[in-house]
Protein: RNA helicase
Amino acid sequence: MSDAGTNGVAAVDDAAAASKVDQKAADLQRATEAGWEKPIPFEYDAAPSEAGAVDERPVKWLSDAVVYEWLDEYGEIGPRDEELEKELYEDPDIQRRGGDAGMAAYQAFEVLVQGMDKIHPFRDFDEAGLHPAILENVKRCKYDFPTPIQAYCIPAVLTGHDVIGIAQTGSGKTAAFLLPILSKLMGKAHMLSAPRAVEGGPRVRAEPLVLIVCPTRELACQIFDEARRLCYRTMLRPCVAYGGAPTKNQREQLEKGCDILVATPGRLMDFMKNTNLLSLARLKFTIIDEADELLSTGWEETIESLFGAGSDTNVDADHTYLMFSATFSKETRKLCREYMEEDFVRIKVGRVGSTHSNIKQSIVYVEDSQKNQALFDLIFSEGPQRTIIFVNSKAKCDIVDDFLYNKGLPSTSIHSNRTQREREDALRSFRSGKCPLMVATGVSARGLDVANVKHVINYDLPSTMHGGITEYVHRIGRTGRIGNEGKATSFYNDRNEDVAPKLVKLLLEAKQEVPDFLEMHKPEDPANIEWNDGTDDESEAGDFGGSFGGDAGADAAFDPNSGFGGGDAGADAAFDPNAGFGGDDTDFAGADDGGFGGGNDDFKADGQDGKVDAW
Ligand SMILES: Nc1ncnc2c1ncn2[C@@H]1O[C@H](COP(=O)(O)OP(=O)(O)OP(=O)(O)O)[C@@H](O)[C@H]1O
Structure:
């Protein structure tokens, strides 16, 4: 090429670069005028660039968060620590419940309680029979009244039952299991509590009484935070163990003593190998949060090695197992049963996998090639607000984050290829509002509890391969939590047809608008939606729900006017020891399969179903 030619190309390049800079400045100005904070560049230079290199920058890992330091001379309740109180209960970024109207949305759901013993729900935390120290902490958290899952789960655990708890996203499942456990332990704290290291003394082996296992690191830290709040001024000491962060810090915390251990499976298994560091021989409670994820394919082996032969886990009858999730597949329920005592209680708020009306769901038709523009327009039409944008791949996560950043928007992103430090940094900036836009893969779909998330955008709808409708429920559940209102917008195109029928049913069930382009997926009788997806169908042999006789019988016995626990009279009447619980013979199966048997004389007909009728 001649010089003239080369110069010509260079001139075009310069012009293109200049126009890009102009465009960027214009975008930034537009975003600033719309009220968005300036984007914060990620400090790539400060982070080590080589794989495996140690990041020397000072960092406060979430596992290092301060817990109440107990001294032996305290009686049953330690003195106040005002500094810690501020951190635990007054942080402006703590999630607060929505108004009474928002909270009432959960009330629209029937609560189905199945089990041999009757559970008496409570209406007011003052009547829940909680230990005074724990009740004080409930008040400090500003939990004015229980959510339905709490109203039933707390008494079930206090009366010594194993529990499977299924309730909508953001309905307070964490406190539903922590509160009764901590309360029970408080009565015996002095007798039971784990060995504790004294200042300057030798380190101890962690021998927790409570183990909470959950699938993601961020969720583990969040549960740890809730435990820090609820254990305040007590001798119960929570710790957290999760992958990605240095083991040293977490080990040091465990060596100070640990009563409540929150952990992700991988790091837990690593620590369990070091028997001088951790023993599960004294465990009294095991909780599997997001149980359907943890008990699903891919995790069974890990869970098996935690509780099966080879581990030192206490498997005596005094060990209580609790499993929680917002969604539960039939296969998962079968696995759950392996760990549960026969008199376990199953508490189900609404249909398994249902969503509540506090989340306004919309589906918009957008071709893949138009998604960036559609996202940009949507974000601008809404104005500045905390928003999570879900995509289906890590690469897409980076691309969409870059796109928003280059458009002058304060975005961050999180996915599993990021270092743990980057993940914690991203979440911190999102929580604090520095970066109110967060692009995420499914890694953040479950459990994440960030205050004021007003909008969830499914840039990609989760295809069946990416968890399908179950993942959709968890994703949109990042907004509209604990009685707050939120919006969920999903980009849909023909590639998403695999999830369309269930998506439409979900929209109809939650009384949301079904767009024209999804009309053809409407069920024949929209007023009577049949799910047939294994999440709620209790009728098959071998499934413990089936052994109870199925929802049909139990729901039929439910009397919405009888209030708390109402309907058990009906349930009792419907019970036939030879036919199973609930009175629907055709639904009953399992007398001979080792489940709760209809023909089993030991099976007491004292199950119940009821409804929380007031907040
Ligand atoms: N009774 C209550 N009143 C007010 N706020 C509450 C109450 N119980 C729990 N919360 C708060 O509600 C938020 C959601 O609770 P949590 O994370 O336990 O929900 P979840 O049901 O586990 O949701 P997910 O299924 O998405 O994991 C938390 O910030 C928690 O502190």
Remarks:
- Residues 95, 97, 143, 146-147, 150, 167, 169-175, 226, 326, 447, 449, 477, 481-482 surround adenosine-5'-triphosphate (CB under 6 Å).
